[in-house]
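User: I'm curious whether this sequence folds into something compact or stays loose and floppy. Could you predict its structure so I can see for myself?
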Amino acid sequence: MEIIAHGIDLVDCPRIEDMVKRHGDRFTDRVFTAAEQKYARANRNPVEKLAGRFAAKEAVLKLLGTGWRGKIAWTEIEIVNNAAGQPEVALSGEVKKIADELGIKHISVSITHTANFAIASAVALTKKAEP
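Assistant: Here's the prediction. I'll summarize afterward.
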């Protein structure tokens, strides 16, 4: 296992809350998958959960070195929780193609948040670490 790249992002939770209030489903459907939206809505503080996933997606784009551009769609990066509750990254479409070209086999992500801020760190690896 070798670390290929790292990305980190900080999001202002009130900014995400404002986007949800102003744009509603148009914003959430464009940025978050149905599973991500369901997860956020099932929690006491859905804005914090959405902001954490937004930060994670930005961190992934940073480690890919692309930013959000071209054919990339926000929903091509999905942050889901495994059975233990740990967030995991699932890629599809153009984002997966870029990751494959870079030799990325696994992306490890960590997310934390408060009422005001969400931060995420993503690390690209050549293969998934064995437990």
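Summary: The two ends are 13 Å apart (CA to CA). The longest strand covers residues 3-12.
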